[in-house]
Amino acid sequence: MGFTLYHFGLHTWTIFCLPALAFAYFVYRKGLPFRVSSIFHPFLGDRVNGPFGRIIDIFAVLGTLFGVAVTIGLGTMQINSGLNTLFGVEESRVNQLILIAVVTCVAVISVASGLDVGIKWLSQINIIIAVALLVFVFAAGSSLYLAKGVIETTGVYAQWLIPLSFWNDTFGNTGWQGTWTVFYWAWTITWSPFVGIFIARISRGRTIREFVLGVLGLPTAFSIVWFSVFGLSAFDIEMNRGGGLVEEVVGQGDIPGALFAFLTHYPWTTFVSAMCIVIVIIFFTTSSDSASLVVDMLCSGTEESPTRQRVFWGITEGVVAATVLTASGVGGLDALQQTIIVFGLPFFVIGFFMMFSLVRALQAETAESSGVQRGRRTPLSARSRRLRRQHRRSRGPSPGGNGGNGGRGNGNGNGNGKRGDDALEP
Questions:
Q1: Structure-model confidence comparison of residues 37 and 370, the more confident one
Q2: How far apart are CA 219 and CA 222, in angstroms?
Q3: Which residue, 13, 24, 301, 391, could crosslink 200 as a Cys pair with Cβ 3.0–4.6 Å?
Q4: CA-CA distance, 360 to 364, in Å (whole number)?
């Protein structure tokens, strides 16, 4: 459980939080367009509108496209496995391509209807069904065991968080970290601009402290509960209820079918499995339509754009997903993992520069707000100088006579009074 939360807990949401905070700051605070290149304005200046900025944006668009395409590919494999379990539908590339076409069509309709209609409704439906599934597994399983396990898992995660952050499989050299950890976080990184823009849009008006606590705290807490309930339920099945999950996943290598093998140990198996298929379909549909909207924003730099552009990107994601899945051949899962690792590498490098860029911008604003920049007082802005002149004219000559010539006067001309414009001092 410690390893599971290491991959799906705080580290994952930190990867999402960084670009989300950067987007929120540079777009809403600095008024820059919705592009990844805008985040590098402290380094590149106006060159973000030139070739360097375009290269960054191209990588962002390609990474998002392939990240979502791999997600859709993995999702169709799981949907196909569920349909095979329930209705005997053959697991084949042809059926998976048909599923991609269906998901793409629904996603295009959703993105064409707008953020507040299709995407919003589908997302809310998905959340409700997912939470209902969580409650069902908790109530129909060993509830007391799971309740105690959630608390203990939280402690295990807190205990392992720092050691696992430095773990790199040096002594064991099993290769497991390379095949799973690197893949998963490369996948997460390619999603970071996509998720970051959405988080930034719903967080406008928050302070940085509120933003960071909200993005890191609440999702991590829910992840702990979710993976504790499902993970510990799997342990309970293996130890106390006949087992079979390890053989399904490890022995037979049927990773897409693991969820449906898990549900065979619960009542109403067929109905609940069908609901899980609906959850997976809606999840990947909302991923596709949301990504279409975000990719369009990354290309146009604006929040509003013609519907035909969003439809174009929705269709493009489906075509890319179908192409990647078809080209992956027999070793579909391995091929998809390698694809996402390749596209995740540039984002990994961009993420490092993103950190320094955000820190540099925040330091500059802090220095400006405190009136100190590079060891000297910051010059007044044109607006501040204009307000100062108006203030002086409204007060008239200093009552201190010649004592006001030096900016001081206490009314007797002896130069001990305060400056009349002291309230506007930066």
A1: 37
A2: 5
A3: 24
A4: 6
